Amino acid sequence: MEEENKKELGELEGLEVKAMEYLAGWKRALADYDNLKKDLARERGEMRRDAMEAAAEAFLTVAAHFDQAVRFQPPDESTRKWLAGVLHIRSVMDEAFHSLGMTPFGEVGEAFDPGRHEAAGRRPQDDAKPDAIVEVVSRGWKIGDRIIRPASVIVNS
């Protein structure tokens, strides 16, 4: 009887070891699954951001053309209503960009930063600091801290 108990006890210990192995394997599989979910969520976020940036690039070209058109406003009164319509379209585009998390940058008077600005030229201006932006040719755009398009500027020399 004692031998039979020892045999059953040995079998029980073997089953317990096997159960612990299965439990450890199950826990590893669960952790792997959680890591996979996190990786997929991160990749989806990156793909969404990359797609949004690609779409934004296309629309930023149109926005830059609007900005250039507005810089050369016709002087006569007959075109003022047309200009008001164009400016309204531009403001709607800006609102759409802001809703996507995009923000413009590049202002006259800012210090030139080669990481954010692209120098389109230099022009001396007495009332500006050295290497300050004296004219914005086209605004820069960013999403969060990531620059989508650098600002094209004229820098004080």
Automatic annotation (TrEMBL):
Record keywords: Chaperone, Coiled coil, Cytoplasm, Stress response
Coiled-coil portions: 23-57
Pfam families assigned: GrpE
Matching InterPro entries: GrpE, GrpE_CC, GrpE_head
Subcellular location: Cytoplasm
CDD domains membership: GrpE (cd00446)
Any one GO CC term of the record: cytoplasm
GO biological process: protein folding
MF terms (GO), sorted A to Z: adenyl-nucleotide exchange factor activity; protein homodimerization activity; protein-folding chaperone binding; unfolded protein binding
Subunit structure comment from the entry: Homodimer.
Function text: Participates actively in the response to hyperosmotic and heat shock by preventing the aggregation of stress-denatured proteins, in association with DnaK and GrpE. It is the nucleotide exchange factor for DnaK and may function as a thermosensor. Unfolded proteins bind initially to DnaJ; upon interaction with the DnaJ-bound protein, DnaK hydrolyzes its bound ATP, resulting in the formation of a stable complex. GrpE releases ADP from DnaK; ATP binding to DnaK triggers the release of the substrate protein, thus completing the reaction cycle.
The family this protein is said to belong to: Belongs to the GrpE family.
Descriptive protein name: Protein GrpE
Lineage: Bacteria, Candidatus Uhriibacteriota
Chain's gene name: grpE
